[in-house]
Amino acid sequence: MVDISNQLFGxxxxxxxxxxxxxxLSNSHxxxxxxxxxxxxxxxxxxxxxxxxxxxxxxxxxxxTVENIADLIPxxxxxxxxxxxxxxxxxxxxxxxxx
Length: 99
Fold this sequence. Notes:
99 residues
């Protein structure tokens, strides 16, 4: 998967990198005492901030905390699931996935 991910670009690359960053948060359920984003590498934090800025208007100057993105979470998952449904439809119909 990692080898293939180096060939991704556009939205597919964003989803992959964003998903990888969020996977690392799964061990951080108690975000009220420890900011789970601090467990990410600096590059992963920048990837998440960039995605949130580009697709949801999150200022990259804001601290990356659960509290700061809480209002965006429903829109984040709606966008990801909507795009995945679109890509799934393209795959089922043997179309080329475009970015």
